[in-house]
Amino acid sequence: MEQKPSRFDRITIKLSGEALMGDQGFGIAPKMILFVAKEILKIHKLGVQISIIVGGGNIFRGVAGSAAGMDRASADNMGMLATVVNSLALCDAFEQMGIPTRVQSAIAMNKIAEPYIRRKAMRHLEKGRVVIFAAGTGNPYFTTDTAAVLRANEIQSQILIKATQVDGVYDKDPKNHGDAIMFDRISYMEVIQKKLHVMDMTAISLAMEQSLPLHVVNLHKPDNIMGIVQGEKIGTLVYSE
Q1: Which of 22, 53, 182, 213 sits most deeply, having the most CB atoms within 10 A of its CB?
Q2: Are 169 and 214 in contact (CB under 8 A)?
């Protein structure tokens, strides 16, 4: 892709944990981690300040554990720890690519990650370091989608990019419905009214309240995230009216 300038100075990217397992069905696929690192490197070279939140669904999902009979708080704590594993894997891959990276955790674990401190995170970004926010919000009952919106607002990102396993936001599940229609643009209010599964309602409400633009895109397609950063019409833009 042509090296056009970025439309944004600071972005936050929400990565799907499930996307990191590739074709394995569980865990972390080395090829997928390498692919993500290469995609982030392209954006980093443009001088964009990048923060990342990654899910943990490739290792453990708190909601699934709760549904199986586990205490919800315990299950969510396990899910948050899964995001730390993914964050450390991403950090290692980024550093090997020459991208200076810091992991900040919402749960104290000083041996392997910095504690989340807003001003310190922003200083890292200003110095050109990628910051990976691990352990969600540090609280049970909140998803990593909510954590992504929260952190994006806290560090004053101009856009939240949700890189997932589908091309954008559809009117129904494209995996089960061949006639599903993808939206190029849709408002947060329409997402709520149509009950579309873009993010959980807490995340949607917070993003709408703070007028944070959300761009949903397929992580698996090369240059997709880069395209959004450069202003290309890719995926679905979710906006506040």
Answers
A1: 53
A2: no
- Return the H-helix or E-strand segment holding 41: helix 30-44
Q: pLDDT tens, 224-234?
A: 999 999 999 99
Short-list 121, 82, 76, 83, CA closest to 102? 121
Q: Fill in the amino acid letter for 228.
A: I
Q: What domain count does the chain have? A: 1
Q: Domain limits at 221?
A: 10-239
Token digits of residue 233: 């019409």
Residue 100 CA: distances (Å) to CA of 10, 44, 45, 50, 159: 16, 10, 12, 11, 22
Question: For residue 39, what is the domain's CATH number?
Answer: 3.40.1160.10
**Predicted TM-score of the model (pTM):** 0.94
Encode burial over 99-136: b for 16+ CB neighbours within 10 A, e otherwise.
bebbbbbbbeeeeebbebeeeebbebbeeebbbbbbbb
